[in-house]
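User: Some background: our group keeps a shared notebook of sequences we're curious about, and every so often someone picks one and asks for a predicted structure to add to the entry. Today it's my turn. The entry only has the sequence so far, pasted here. Could you supply the structure so I can complete it?
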Amino acid sequence: MHAVRRTLSFLTLLIAAGGLVGCSDEGGGSTRSMPQAPPAPATSRDFGDHVLHYRAFRSDEISPQIARAHGLTRSRHRALVNIALVRKVPETIGQPVRGEVGLAARNLLGQQKSVSIREIEDGESIYYIAETSVSHNETVIFELEISPADSDTTYRLSFSQQFHTR
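Assistant: Of course. Here's the predicted structure to add to the notebook entry:
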């Protein structure tokens, strides 16, 4: 259970990183209105026995401490995709699952992007981090394939993300 909390804590930190980037403390006066953020795209998919969590974002959105701890490069021109697979277990928040992970990336012109992916294990927590380069206003289409070690099934997911590097 402790390992699952660590995995979810890491996922929460990565997901929250994107949500805090646009916040500011501008304005004066006693009445301030908080700008409304657009709805966040889905970052998980239920596949029956498993839930797949994923999120793509610029690597400079993570803290220097997290980057150092996991050997990640922080840059406006680098994108990270965080992937975690959890097996559903009744009366719990789930059990992290190891799997074979493949990720292909291409831009809107159909140009394939080089992607490096690695598994990170922290105690019983298991997640996968993929890295690729991005340009300003580039939309990247990700095609994710994951085969859980505890199943003969392969899950497929496609999503896109536009990156702003300025």
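Suggested note for the entry: Confidence is low (pLDDT under 50) at residues 1-34. The first helix runs from residue 2 to 20.
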